[in-house]
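In this supplementary section we document a worked example of the pipeline. Step one takes a protein sequence of length 420 as its only input; no multiple sequence alignment statistics are reported here. Step two produces a three-dimensional model, which step three serialises into structure tokens for compact storage. The input and output of this example are shown verbatim.
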Amino acid sequence: MGDIVFTRRSGWIPNVIREDGELKLMLGAGADANHEPRTFTFPIGEAHAAVVQEDLARHLLLWSAVLPLCDAAGSRGPLDETAAVALLDPILLSAPADVDALFRRIEWDRDRLIAHGADIDALDRGQVCAALRSATETPDEKRARKHHANRRRAERGAVLGPLDSALLRYTGQYLHGATVPRRIPAAVEATLLPEVMRVITTAERACAGMRIGRDPRRGKRATDKRDWDRMATAVEAAVRRAHPELVDDAVRTVSFLLCSEAADRSRNTPVEEDEEAAGDRADVGGSARKTALSFTDDKDVGRKWRSDQSRTATAEFWEFVGDRSAADNEVFTIEDEEMGEGIQLHFYADSVARVTTVGAGGGGADTEYRVEYSLVDGIGGYRTLVSAFVRGGCAALERHGSWMSDAAELERARRRRDAE
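The serialised model returned by step three reads:
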């Protein structure tokens, strides 16, 4: 790095440096393969350096025009110095009308100018020089993010009314739609907060009593996507009926808020309580409750459970699944060795097999098993089957599936289901 000749208070605005006796403009932009900021330089003349130092607006306009060239360089490519140098005279030394005309032809970073105080209406009219009359060295990044968010919504045809905007601010999603929502009443104008709370109350009533359970197939803290979708559908339908004036962005942010809160409650619920709540929803049947079980996965890793342990068998099993389940580990077995029966869960195929010993091997003969298959409807179906087996063995599974003795028949049933 050369000696700094001129710099502004904001460290990101390009600096003028002298390197090996040559004046250059130096700026940081983009990132390399290790996510570290990249630095670019290109040569400028004495006259260009004088304008950069004396005219903040021209300095910012040049920066705005060079940034797309930095983006084009990617994480490791060189800056197109020829293209960068070609911008110097037209932006720094030309009349305002010619600069405006240039910016109608080239790519430039609008958000940078808005962050530094550019007049948005003037930018929309193509008057970039006039827009920078109120420019400031210190950026207002929030102003730029707000404008960027509004532009993206406008491109989708979403025009926010006052209540729409208030709901997005209440959930913290006004600037970033992907932000995990939370309740921020202080972000809403006092006059609009009662209206916001009426919408939230409508949503809360629509999903009262609903829950989003865990889905250990996808990890220890994963939750059931079907439960999420059901709750979101209920909330959005109710909010749209009660408040038809709201745009989709506002309705979705409310459902996202309620679903996120329900999912967090599930993640923070002890495993035993979560398992009990899921079991209470299912009529599992059976009475031959298990006293000792073995759990195994597709990697031959196992865990034992006995009834004298402090945790229930279902809670222990689903924690085992949450610990072990992975893209290459989607088959889990629960076995009662004493009774000679078990179930095998095939998460990759939404199916289950129940295995019953029908003839003990003896005198060199192989043990005979009866294997029956059934399709499973999501994690809720798996929870019902596991609870039923723990409480009553294979006999208790009879009413919780359409059991087939032929694997080929199961495959045909799966194809019919997938085609629907």
